[in-house]
Amino acid sequence: MEPLYQYIILFGMLIATAGLAWMLYLIKHSLGDTIDEPGKDMPTQSGHPSPEPAWNRYHVHYYGFALLFLAFDMEMAYMYPWAVVYKELGLVALLDMGVFLAILFLGLIYTWTQSGLKRQ
Amino acid sequence: MSTILTWIAIGLLFAAGVYFVALLEQWSLQGYFDWAAPFNAFLRSFGQEEIRTRRYDTVFYEATPVIFIAVVLLAVAILPFARETVILDLGTAALFINAALVYIMVSLIMAGWSANGVYGMIGGWRAMAQLIAYSMAVVMAITAAVMRAESMAMTPIIQSQASLWNIFYQPVGFLLFYGAVMAIAFLPPFDLPTAEGELAGGAWAEFTGARKTLFRLGRLLLILTLSLAVTIFFLGGWLGPWLPGFVWTFIKTTLVAASFFWVGRYFPRIRHDHLLEWGWKYAVPAALFNILQVGIVLLL
Questions:
Q1: Is B90 touching A (CB cutoff 8 A)?
Q2: Which of A22, A97, B151, B173 suits B236 as a labelling partner, its CA being 20 to 30 A distant?
Q3: Which residues of chain B does A91 touch, with a Cβ-Cβ cutoff of 8 Å?
Q4: Cα–Cα distance for residue pair A61/A4, rounded to 1 Å
Q5: Which segment of the chain is annotated as a signal peptide (chain A) (predicted)?
Q6: Distance, in angstroms, between A54 CA and closest chain B CA?
Q7: CA distance A26 to chain B (A)
Q8: Would you call B288 an interface residue with chain A, using a CB distance cutoff of 8 Å?
């Protein structure tokens, strides 16, 4: 199958999904409208009305992990092409990637020793 | 002609699979099977009034359910049901499935953010924490499978398991992938983004009616798709004697899906900081060990 044709199918699937959603919404719309009642549009907060918007600054307790994740995610981008040719290249490939991974792994261990691997 | 019949059979089996997963989901909550429950749940969810919060983000609110279900369908499209029976035989399938499934997290964050509710927002941030915790396990386990197959396409990955399934070839990778896949689908021990009884539905708390129905349908599809992925990467896909390939695929897929719910019943919900800690302290070294082990065995 031609590559371009494949991506046209993928794009068509996206459109079809959006169409399915739209069809569901149309059916739903034809069944009747929402009755406007006071307090109905409040976000859930255990029965209390929530006066403030939720779009506030939020302390993500896992930013240390997020930084580590970035480093490892970059590494994964190199890992896939490496994995495909691994068997062909043999021991050289293992050593090449081994050095790279060892350095990254040292980084992980360093973060661990600096107690970065816990809720901040 | 026979290919068309095969596709019709696959379509019917897939729909039956979605029904089965819905049945299992209900069983995991109530402990007994109610054969009409999926239909009742659909009607209840779809018939619900469409309520929106006061100040919501229109673009995110409308886009999330569609994104959620669309990425799952894109992931299904590249997974083969049998030899030559795949919607798209993509050369970079192993990478594509990662890229597609990350959007589950994006959709959950958008859902949490868009409704402008506190519980939803926390659910969204937790979805991101969960991604950071499980993502390495998924990616590295797939890498090891790719190393063995010498290709990122799905067909060679399955054919490489003809002599020995990957579950025996790299058991560590299987355990990591299995757990991580449950985290992707936020199934019970990892149901942090939508934690019932803690966040009152979390990221999906403010969604009602048709949009909630799309989310729930998408989740059922997601669970089935991930079971299919486990089958393909670790349980030899269509490989099996006597029966046609796609029947084997579906037998394995349904068993994996059932095992998800069965396992989930025996674990309490994990705290998100524990999940992150364990993910990086134990799962990442284990995944690297798995790659090393597969690498050494391949060279022998």
A1: yes
A2: A97
A3: 299
A4: 43
A5: none
A6: 5
A7: 10
A8: yes
pLDDT tens, residue by residue, B76-115: 888 888 887 788 888 888 888 988 989 999 999 998 888 8
pLDDT at B220: 92
B113 in reach of chain A (CB within 8 A): yes
Residue with tokens 């021991």: A91
Q: What is the pLDDT, as a whole number, of residue A43?
A: 77
Cβ pairs bridging A and B (under 8 Å): 165
Residue of A nearest to B73 (CA): A13
Q: Residue B299: is its pLDDT beyond 70?
A: yes
Q: Give the residue on A whose Cα is nearest the Cα of B46.
A: A28
pLDDT surpasses 90 at B176 = yes
- Measured CA to CA, the distance from residue B288 to residue B296 in angstroms comes to 12
pLDDT the model gives residue A31: 85
Sequence-separated (6 or more) residues with CB below 8 Å from residue B208: B48, B49, B50, B51
The list of chain A residues with pLDDT below 50 reads none
Residue B175 confidence (pLDDT): 92
Backbone Cα Rg of chain A: 25
Is B1's pLDDT higher than 60? no
CB-CB under 8 Å, A41 with B51: yes
Q: How confident is the model at residue B201 (pLDDT cuts 50, 70, 90)?
A: confident
Q: Which structure tokens are listed for A19?
A: 């169409």
* Domain residue ranges in chain B: 2-299
- Lookup: tokens for A112: 């661990």
Is the separation of the CB atoms in A112 and A56 below 8 Å? no
CA atoms within 13 A on the CB side of A97: 26
Q: Region B180-198: what's the mean pLDDT? A: 86
Q: Does A88 touch chain B (CB under 8 A)?
A: yes
From chain B, the residues in CB contact with A109 under 8 A are none
Q: Does A41 sit within 8 Å of B281, measured CB to CB?
A: no
Secondary structure percentages of chain B, helix, strand, coil, to 5: 75, 0, 25
Would you call B206 and A14 a contact, using CB atoms and an 8 Å cutoff?
Answer: no
Length of chain A: 120
Tell me the CA end-to-end span of chain B in Å, nearest whole number.
Answer: 45
